[in-house]
Amino acid sequence: MSRRAPDQLAKARFLMRAILGAAIAWQLSTAVCCAQPAPRHSHLFTMNVDGSNTRPVVAIEGMVWHGTPCYSPDGERLVFDASPQVYGGPPSRIYTVRLDDQRKSIADLGYGANGSWSADGKQIAFFIQRGSPGGEKPGVYTMNVDGTNRKWHSEGEKARFSPIDNRILFMSRHEGFPSIYVIDGDNRKRVLFDKYSNVTSGSWSPDGTQIVYIAHRNNEPAILGVTPSSGKEVPPRVRFQGRVGWIPSWSPDGKQIVLWKVNERNQQRISLITFAGNNSPVEIPGQEFTSFNSDPSWSPDGRRIAFCSDRIKQ
Description:
The protein has 314 residues and is mainly beta. The protein contains 2 helices and 24 strands.
């Protein structure tokens, strides 16, 4: 055997360890910084805002993780991602489903995660993770609602369409630190000017003028903050600091934000906090027999919330 062969083998092993390490780090980074209990599985549910009338949404065969549900503008469909591994990761695929006909209407749109609808309901913004089995370039994408015409826009992740136009917010580290950016046509601008060690997600206000986000500084509690979407360089408003987690969602009337928080028993609970005032998040009832509840998303009429949970499918 030539001397070059062992060198190539060593390089290959190093590369495989690096890829595996990156995948594991992606899965655990948010869980660790938010003190999130790890679920055995997650499935999708919807419930009334008061916690009543909880209903399961279709589960994909072979998938242990179902997350990031997002209502269509007409409230009739959900886009979500599912994966054969906990916390999603590179194997995640994007699906849509009609809420009135779950079993017959499910559509597989291909690899990706964190889908959100455009204001006119004709497109979906999402992101592809590094190491995706599809081999696509990682970053922020859009596609038609049938999965066609995939278009890459930028490096980054956690893409979310604006509720009023075609702007897309996303998370990126391309300036050397994590922050929130907005794509507006061919322009990309940073809209968060405080620096954090991690920015997990962001969501638009109903009028598209503000972005609520969750971020962290080293080992400090998570920050629920609000920043203008205009890119005007002003300090963000810190609305709450505590054990809260990713992907907050603004109510259609702009008065409340739904998110998850970790309670004193280290259980993850869907909770509501008012946009104005200085109160803490209030847990929604009906979650007593679960430990993991995450990724809440408000319906367009403000009556229901979609979320993922480790509760037993009913």
